[in-house]
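A.,

Following up on our hallway conversation. Structure tokens first:
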């Protein structure tokens, strides 16, 4: 399968995961299902892309911004980076929904946080952390 097809499939799968997260946000099982299926598939695909393209990586591939930019000229490395974003952004969405449920934060205020997590990852998480702090006066996440 070529990188363009994998890009389309993984982007569609991520979108499906986000839709499922929005629809089933009140359930206790959605996080388990998303982590156990879509995010695991992303982890497997990412690992396969990295392992099958080890020749693209040099010992200094990550030690400067220029070297990272050069690394991402390789389409397989770029796809691996994209899948990395998709997996961790969806995992962050699962965290936000689960943590908000734990703190009694309603769904509607979460929508902008989830939208920006889907589109801009850490910015959406920042919005959620600010929302949670505003509503609970707790800054540090209790993740146990």
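Then the amino acids I'd put at each of the 144 positions:
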């Amino acid at each position: 399968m070529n990188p363009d097809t994998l890009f389309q499939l993984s982007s569609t799968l991520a979108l499906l995961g986000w839709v499922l997260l929005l629809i089933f946000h009140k359930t206790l099982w959605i996080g388990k299902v998303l982590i156990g299926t879509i995010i695991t598939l992303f982890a497997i695909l990412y690992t396969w892309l990295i392992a099958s393209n080890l020749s693209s990586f040099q010992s200094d591939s990550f030690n400067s911004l220029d070297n990272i930019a050069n690394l991402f000229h390789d389409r397989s490395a770029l796809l691996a980076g994209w899948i990395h974003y998709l997996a961790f952004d969806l995992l962050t969405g699962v965290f936000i929904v689960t943590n908000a449920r734990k703190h009694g934060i309603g769904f509607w205020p979460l929508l902008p946080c989830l939208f920006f997590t889907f589109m801009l990852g850490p910015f959406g998480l920042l919005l959620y952390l600010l929302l949670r702090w505003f509503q609970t006066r707790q800054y540090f996440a209790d993740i146990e």
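Residues 75-102 form the longest helix (28 residues). Curious whether your intuition agrees with the design.

B.
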